[in-house]
Structure of Beta-xylanase:
Amino acid sequence: MFPPHLSRLLLALVSAFVVLAALAVPPAQAAEPTLGELAAAKGRYFGSATDNPELTDAPYVAILGSEFNSITPGNSLKWEATEPQRGQFTFAKGDEVVALGQRNGQMVRGHTLVWHSQLPDWVSNGGFPAAELRSILRNHVTTVASHYKGKVAHWDVVNEPFNEDGTFRDSVFYRTLGESYIADALRAARAADPGAKLYINDYNTDGLGAKSDGMYNLVKSLKAQGVPIDGVGFQGHLALQYGFPNRMQENLQRFADLGVDVAITELDIRMILPADATKLATQATWYSDVTKACLAVSRCVGITVWDYTDKYSWIPGVFPGEGAALPYDENLRPKPAYAALRTALGGKPGDPTSCKVAYKVASQWNTGFTGSVTITNTGSGAINGWNLKFSFPGDQKVTHGWNAGWAQSGAAVTATNASWNGTLAAGASTTIGFNGSYTGTNTAPGAFTLNDQNCTAG
Ligand code: G3I
């Protein structure tokens, strides 16, 4: 037994050693900023469209929530979704996406209040006289914009009003009401939600040309009349085979000079399939060039991709034989375009989803099983210290684990590297394991993060 003063000294020395030992554990790798964070550092947003059926895909939803700081419902705020029958409004699907954005702390872009497409038959073929159609239009805009008051930051109030030659498109609204339907829609939207920024949005207006001249003249005239218009959306549906938009930055700037914000609202860059390394490299350059054009215009407030993964792109369905248009491939792996976007936004090309996790049930009995989890560093740099997180879909419980420190809270599991497998060189793997209990079906978790960055599952 030591005398008391020596015991105290010994305790102090042991405590100091424990603290020093804890400090010596390599710190978890600092997370690379996301596209949204990089854009925010430049006073912009970087967003993605999404759609309700995709929201059951957990790995997809994880990236949607972490990588982007703005979200746009790709279909669920359109007229056919929100007022399928006259006076009968349905907001369930729109609400689902808006609530998801709010939970993620994302800005919501509302798309769209007045459009000739995805317009229910009762409007397009209703044969309404002008006064009645005007009141139908005002009522629609007012009801939808009021429902989302304070929740939708930007509204595409009018979508695609132009023909390719810059004349007005012959929609039921233009045919019946003339171009005044645009001012009417904007005024109704402003009255319903004075805080929302009101946009007109179109495609093939990204560069200088007849169609963007049409838009330019419209915005100029609306401003002159004092009609509420805050921004112009340039959809940015580009195709490698048709060339980059003509003098895009100059085009964005001339709109900004009219006193409106500008935004790239539906960016995707398609190619004729199959994709190959050359086309993907050109695509990456285009993503970068669009981003640079936006950043060079102080009133260019942000960029939205029209969904972020080739898995959910609208293109193959509409242009057979074309696709591969988005920065992530069909397996949610970042493409060269992703690194190009990061670099253009002032970040490192670093790939935050540079990990792969293979989860296997190695054996299973009545109420127990052995799980094996192989973590691979698929990035280009070493990982120094890691924690792996996933959630069990059922009531599985880790009872005993090895090759990592295991902790579980509810369904959420965290595995922290052991001292000897904390460093994972580029391309290296480590396999960790556990015994667990379960009842019912032993469904595997579908989404994994390493140091809070999404990993590919599989
Ligand atoms: O909901 C039905 C489903 O019940 C049915 O089984 C299925 C069978 O085809 O169709 C589903 O509807 C589809 C809808 O997307 C929802 O997935 C429509 O067929 C399909 O035409 C519709 O496509 C949308 C397209 O607008 C319509 O024009 C795309 O998802 C959407 O991304 C796209 O977005 C437009 C922007 O709003 C405006 N700018 C161009 C952009 C690309 O076309």
